[in-house]
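Quarterly update from the structural biology core.
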Amino acid sequence: MNRLRYEFDHWDDAIHGFRETERKKWYPHNRDVLERVRQVAFDGAIMPYIHVLDLAADGVIKPHVDSTRYCGTTISGISLLSDSVMRLVRTDAQKYQQPVTETVTDAKSADSDAVYGHRRFPEALLENGFYADLLLPRRSLYIMCHTARYNFTHEILSKEHSTFLGTAIPKARRISIICRNDP
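Predicted structure, tokenized:
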């Protein structure tokens, strides 16, 4: 990863200040950890390539629902290097159940959700009260499946907004090891 530059343009504009790669082969100790993740988070196999995302201290992951085209019912991640805050915001219960088939190049579509490729970016409105901030301590595992996976956006809050229960959470560089199951 050290040879890669931090990027600020992602194909769907979901991530800024990141480096990423995918790995299929791991050292035996790492394979043991990933096997434990598979046993805890997945009912069956995980995709063979594991996503490694390096988010700079000033990097951000914007609110999004992962495309059903690229992953199935479960997403899990191991958070490394830094504590961070993940925000989940409730979306329309039916809207994200199926893959998006249209591609819109305008900034907004008719239903007020920006669409880039095959991923929707709902407006994360907190007025509806259906949101939760989750503290992801370094070396923790999170698992999003079913309702959390499809009916909530998820994001990693920026350094400026990184608070949990009124306490500032210092956000530094963060690496996440992300496992998914097949769509």
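The domain at 15-180 is CATH 2.60.120.590 (Jelly Rolls).
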